[in-house]
């Protein structure tokens, strides 16, 4: 098999993404469930759904999906309800071949839909096992779960958030564990990056269907005097390792970039990080009141988002790196007769969501087409696409595989295939990002 040409891969040139000597944009969707849906058998397998979902996304201008190539934990018959199952890595260095084959199959479908994938190699949060599972393996201790969605009782419940952050942060901040956890993680990176796809025969590192490697979904800050240096060293060492295996693909961090300029620089200063990352979550960050039916609350969130984008734009320009808003989302309308859990029904309206999505599109397009001091944003990816899937109609601990991970109410931030008004906003977004419209 011939070696790939560097022109086949999206590269970063200054603050722009470039593909085949043309400026490249990302109109993206988060589709974390890809690996499990792509399995040939098992309760999570749904290849016909994947093909339908990719066809719908492609028809609305989506050219990138952000997916996981990591899930960790035991393959017990009764996994925790807030965790993906089956998992890819059952113990350090031990993989479920069928789950890996599901990832192979999914990546093999992307060229037919003119799509690429941003592939995340780990997760700070527990819904896929994540780095807390590495700490649990290394210390033989139980994970202190933060507040999670109780699917049976239909309420949020659980432990202390800071306790969990401190525990999971030991993955890259505890010198007594670091050699162990990092060795296990780099072994996983090697297993993924050097894997030969069982469907196409192409090694992942040579596959143009992969747009970028992402170090971790939402690495969190370290609350210690040496936190900045510890996290910067982990990012640089990990990104350098990936680059040594694969100099062809972009590398991004997965950072939310919500903690100000100093932390943004810490997470993106490595020369091996070629694409900056940010996320924006109005409800999670206390910027949106989901029970306010007026536009006051959502408009406040929009103003905060616009300021956030302007700041990230400036900071990325200083680093001379392009940036992508890899997550943004908003729940369905949650007031009046549709208040409470009924708001997560596919029939609940999306008035505020559409207003927010349209504002995000405007902010990203303004940066993308900026004149003079060139904007750095290369696109955005909404969270998340459920497609033809629908949440359960009665309380159940079974994973529904909608766009919401299993630690959250199914349907909370999901975009469905019949959310035509939202999909039309995404179509318009992609059209406005096209270089032919500049």
Q: Uncertain regions: pLDDT < 50 for 5+ in a row?
A: none
Number of helices: 11
Question: Which structural class do you get from the secondary structure elements?
Answer: alpha/beta
Number of domains: 1
User: Would you identify the CATH architecture?
Assistant: Alpha-Beta Barrel
Radius of gyration: 20 Å
Distance between the termini: 39 Å
Number of strands: 17
In the sheet with the most strands, the strands line up as 12-11-8-5-4-15-14-13
Q: How much helix is in the residues? A: 25-40%
CATH superfamily placement? Glycosidases
Average pLDDT: 93
Q: What is the CATH top level name?
A: Alpha Beta
Give the ordered list of helices and strands. EEEEHHEEEHEHEEHHEHEHEHEHEEEH
Global outline: globular
Reported for the largest beta sheet, the result is: 8 strands, parallel
- Report strand %: 15-25%
Task: Kindly identify the CATH topology.
Answer: TIM Barrel
Tell me about this structure.
The chain has about 450 residues and is an alpha/beta fold. It has a single domain (about 5-435), classed as Glycosidases (TIM Barrel, Alpha-Beta Barrel). It has eleven helices and 17 strands. It has helices at about 35, 45-60, 95-110, 130-140, 160-175, 180-195, 225-245, 260-270, 295-320, 350-370, 420-435, and strands at about 10-15, 15-20, 20-25, 25-30, 65-70, 90, 95, 115-120, 145-150, 155-160, 210-215, 250, 275-280, 325-330, 375-380, 385, 415. Strands 12-11-8-5-4-15-14-13 form an eight-stranded parallel sheet. A three-stranded antiparallel sheet has the order 1-2-3, with no helix packed on it. A two-stranded antiparallel ribbon has the order 6-7. α7 (about 225-245) packs parallel to α8, α9 (about 295-320) packs parallel to α10 (about 350-370) and α10 (about 350-370) runs parallel beside α11. The longest helix is centred in the last third of the chain and has 24 residues, at about 295-320.
